[in-house]
Amino acid sequence: MKIEVANRLKKLPPYLFVEIDKAKRKALAEKRDVIDLGIGDPDIPTPKHILKSLHKASLNPKTHKYALDAGLPALKQEIAKWYKKRFNVKLDPDKEILPLIGSKEGIAHIPLGFINKGNYTLVPDPCYPPYKTGTIFAGGIPIIMPLLKENDFLPDLKDIKKSVLKRTNLMFLNYPNNPTSAVCTKSFFKEAIKFAEKNNIIICHDAAYTELCFDGYKPPSFLEVHGAKQIGIEFHSFSKTFNMTGWRLGFACGNSEIIKALAKVKSNIDSGVFTAIQHAGVEAMKSISKTLPGIIAIYQKRRNVLIDSLNSAGWEIKKPKATFYVWAPVMKGYNSASLAKIILEKADVVVTPGNGFGSTGEGYIRMALTVDHSRLKEAAKRIKHILG
Ligand code: PLP
């Protein structure tokens, strides 16, 4: 029998990391001392007190049953408390907060709630890939909003054609941004809300990196801005904030009708987050002010070690105010892929070519600060050596 996959799988954008993955596997097979700055997956373990709370909760047989689709009330209450304290935004824990199996899950599923066949979703480019793939799975078409350096990596909303807007139901935004590490102000959110209201578009703001911020800077929540809750929701993740990528815990919050639709989609697909993990999420939220400063200090030091060293060799890279990504312009004579290739082949350092996140990412590479500072120092030394 010929196995034929559905058109929606065939429509997915090409996977552009094939070459770099192949070269990485080869380097590892040759037992070379590879430093991997490719993946945004923290190397630091989850804090012990969060592990302990998972252990304790897992011993209670009540947590072994199907979780409630709508999420653990205690977790939603703790999230609401944190939101009020951190952003001064009031959320109704019952109607305006929904735990997710990692924020990726909610991001990938939200188009199923709002995209009909042929509808458009506005997505930043370069971007976290599920904005595009979730739209395609729902039968929609992603329309890119280029993030350009000259616009501080913000989309130019005035540039979007009227004919596009007629068929657009959703827009994804993401600040602090992956992969560009750009941040935005509340005034940009204000402009986006006005635009969305006028054109009847739901905004999904991906806030996965709001807590990983440096030099005293505190990124705003989209929901802080007047009118946001009328037209949108925000996605948060426990993954990067608490080094919990493998646990799969995130949440969506904001407009109750949008949350309700997402909950309906999810209740037909999954059966919620393991209750013991949600209890650990309560502990993570309760202790955030104690845990976070240490985590931020580690990434800030790493950021400085890598960028100071590369800048000293004449490579002009801006220090990000948030996220654990460094978005570096490629130098003359290279493109994203060729620079990533030479850095891996000659320096045994894995970096991600920017065009893998969308065509507008061409001309950049992304380095993740997910190895310790001594390895970053070594990576920078090797890169400087090959770049002369
Ligand atoms: N949003 C952005 C911008 C990300 O970079 C990531 C992960 O890399 C996620 C969401 C997904 O995080 P989670 O682990 O909560 O699914």
Q: How is the main sheet built?
A: 7 strands, mixed
Q: What is the fold named in CATH at topology level of the largest domain?
A: Aspartate Aminotransferase, domain 2
- Residues in β-strands, percent: 5-15%
Structural class: alpha/beta
CATH superfamily of the largest domain: Type I PLP-dependent aspartate aminotransferase-like (Major domain)
* Number of DSSP strand runs: 12
Amino- and carboxy-terminal Cα gap? 55 Å
- C-alpha-based Rg, rounded: 21 Å
| Chain-averaged pLDDT | 96
Shape from CA axes? globular
Low-confidence stretches: none
Count, helices? 14
Oligomeric state of the chains present here: single chain
Helix-strand string: HHEHHEHEHEHEHEHEEHHHEHEEEH
Annotate the secondary structure layout.
Blueprint: H1 7-10, H2 18-29, E1 35-36, H3 48-58, H4 73-87, E2 97-100, H5 103-114, E3 120-125, H6 130-137, E4 141-146, H7 162-166, E5 168-174, H8 186-199, E6 202-206, H9 228-231, E7 232-237, E8 250-254, H10 256-267, H11 275-286, H12 288-312, E9 325-329, H13 336-347, E10 349-350, E11 352-353, E12 364-368, H14 373-387
The structure holds pyridoxal-5'-phosphate (PLP).
Residues 40, 102-104, 128, 174, 178, 206, 208, 237, 239, 245, 250 line the site of pyridoxal-5'-phosphate.
Overview of the molecule:
Helices cover 41% and strands 14% of the residues. The protein is of the alpha/beta class and 388 residues long. The protein has 2 domains: 7-45 and 290-387, Aspartate Aminotransferase, domain 1; 48-288, 3-Layer(aba) Sandwich (Aspartate Aminotransferase, domain 2). The strands form 3 sheets. The chain has a 7-stranded mixed β-sheet, with helices on both faces. A 3-stranded antiparallel β-sheet has the order 9-12-11, with helices on one face. The site of pyridoxal-5'-phosphate (PLP) has 13 residues, from helix 5.
